[in-house]
Amino acid sequence: MRRTTRTPHRHSRTSRAVAAGIAAALGTSLLAACGSDDNGGGDGGNGSGDVTISVGVFGQMDFTELYDEYMDENPHVKIEQNSIQENRDYYQQLITRLPTGSGLSDIQAIEVDNIYEMANDLGQYWVNLNDSEHADLDHFVEWKRDQATSQDGRTIGFGTDIGPMAICYRTDRFEEAGLPTDREEVGQLWADDWAQYIEVGERFMENTPSDIAYVDSAGGMFNAVLNSFSEQMYSADGEVIYQESEAVQNAWDLGVAVAEAEMSAGQDQFSEEWNRAFSNGDFATISCPAWMLAYIQDKAGQDGEGNWDVAAAPRPANWGGSFLAVPEASKNQDEAVKLANWLTAPEQQAKLFNTQGNFPSSATAQDSPDVQDTTHDYFRGAPIGQIFSDAAQGIPTIIVGPRNQTIRESLTDGLVMIEQQGESPDDAWDATVRRIENALAD
Amino acid sequence: MTTDHRAAAPPTKLGGAAPPTASSPDPKEQRRARRRSRRYMRDTKWSPYAFIAPFFLFFGAFGLFPLIFTGWASLHRVTLQQPTTMEWAGLHNYTRLLSDEFFWNALRNTFTIGLIATVPQLLMALMLAHLLNYKLRNSMFFRVAMLTPYATSVAAATLVFAMLYGRDYGMINWALGLVGIDKIAWEAGTWTSQFAVSTIVIWRWTGYNTLIYLAAMQAVPNDLYESAALDGASRWQQFIHVTIPSLRPTILFTVVVSTIGATQLFGEPLLFGGTPSGGSQHQYQTLGLHLYEVGWSFYNLGRASAIAWAMFLILIIIGLLYWAVARWIGRSTGKGA
């Protein structure tokens, strides 16, 4: 090669220049490519053309069964759904993408734990539904709508479902332990308060012949009790009050009672082992919001069919429930609002309650005979419409604050310390408070 | 090929690397020759920069800029929700780390997990490499088999291990039950969970280190073994006195790489418990996980940036320590020989 370069010819020079050009172009264009993110399917649709609406959901949430009907009615619309298993992951993605406005779906689901933050701190990134002619918000129960409304009166979300609570229990385990199995009688066992529920647990543990726990986890108990109160982590004027609040104290004490009475299977909720405990029938009761029925059916599987039933909980409470919101960054805002409005309309909510057990957040849907008369075959034909409607009547207006999720998860972790790591309740409480303070500190 | 350029274009002389034009008196022709020569000069001078530019552009965009920006962010109050609004905080994020029990806990965990994971891993790798270095039938098969865990994704491996270590339905507890040992709550205990996370790391990386050692062993000259054998050294003595000293630079390399890996350990503990808290008592929360929790669960990007820089500084200190040790070893062996 050395000799040929001495007598240069055009070819090698141009090719080198081209190579250098390519090298430079490669560098810059790749860098440029990083700047322009994908827009998550928000393309298409100016005016009359076809529109693709993307819907981002998490967990068990699934609207797939409704899409075909909507697309038949609106042939110019195509719907795509992106699902992420854990709300934690989903939310982290959402919260990082929101300020940049890229990578978002046209409709995003929001969990109730996160709705305060979304409506207030990040409210500017969402379409204000009060200003939209396509949004009908009158049919929702009032507290649901309030949760999605910011201090300055912007409503950013349509309610999907709410989570009125009942107790799901296994009739075969109750029978073995000599307890009644009829859902009316079972509900009567603990009709007074949660303490009575724990007393029943003590009876159960004494009499059960097998190696079965009464309840799945102390954390589940904590959530059930906590959610029957209005002020939990935050007071109505936005102060952090978890250390003094009646709700947390009650829930913590009952959680500790469960952990210390050794009536719990000591599971982490939503873990792989928890799922398997369902299919093995390793615990007899669990506090179940309406949306959990589908989860239980899925995890307990065919073997569990005919063994699970649903009874009323001691106190009305609400756990979970979600919202659908439309980001300002969406290129198809109008179409997205229309779709979200339709998906959460009373008829659709009633339909989802029938098929999936998600209890409607729409007052109109709650009162409809469709919902009232619903029974669930998997749970021995339990009249879930009736049970959850009754439970929904007494639900307090739950006040959520910006860091609800962090505080709640730390508190249930505190119960895990007692339950699985043998910490004393006092030490666990101190550790939990230190952890929460550290998380909230700036 | 840079040597070619230098030989081709002495840049100062008239004409330079252009074709010889001595016999043409035409001024036009001369001008053209000069122009061409200038172009060649420019080419030789600037094209190397263009060739290496992509690296520096990428490094600038994905290495240097994030590093500096993280440093800048660590001096501010920044939240994940509003990353563009920064409020000057000085060294607040760093000073509060010093008294932050959760930071120190994560640092301690990183250190112990790193130790439990790295030391047995490298020892096993050394042993395996030694065995594979013998003449074996199907040695290729064993070498490939060694490397398969390395080719598995962290997520897949960790999820399987998490199931194996399950308290109630895990296979390991089932096996222990067969020999009469009670159920162990692997995830809940401090040492048990750290051990479990370490085994995932060991499983994934032993093969990789084995191959590196094997490559180094095959470069050890045979004469050394022959003369050692003539002196009556046993196989074991040969391993200790010939193989290990020859592998010293390689061992140092693997130790450095493993240390960096251990300091940044993230995927395994995250997926093992499924939460960024690393267990309800943070019993296996590593620094990487702590950073992630502070930034993405507590939304405190400023503090998370400070943690990132603290990790960086820790790595630099460890690097300097290794460098000092390497020099010390080098000098002492130099004297010994």
UniProtKB/TrEMBL annotation, chain A:
InterPro entries: Bact_solute-bd_prot1 (IPR050490), SBP (IPR006059). Pfam families: SBP_bac_8 (PF13416). SUPFAM superfamilies: Periplasmic binding protein-like II. The keyword Magnesium does not apply. It comes from the Bacteria. Keywords: Signal. Residues 1-32 form the signal peptide. This is Extracellular solute-binding protein. It comes from Streptomyces sodiiphilus.
From TrEMBL, chain B:
The keyword DNA damage does not apply. It comes from the Bacteria. Gene3D superfamilies: MetI-like. Its main location: membrane. Coiled coil: none annotated. It comes from Streptomyces sodiiphilus. Keywords: Cell membrane, Membrane, Transmembrane, Transmembrane helix, Transport. The lineage of its organism: Bacteria, Bacillati, Actinomycetota, Actinomycetes, Kitasatosporales. This is Sugar ABC transporter permease. Residues 107-322 form the ABC transmembrane type-1 domain. Pfam families: BPD_transp_1. The chain crosses the membrane at residues 46-69, 111-132, 144-165, 306-325. Belongs to the binding-protein-dependent transport system permease family. It is a multi-pass membrane protein. It is found in: Cell membrane. The keyword Ribosomal protein does not apply. Residues 1-39 are annotated as: Disordered.
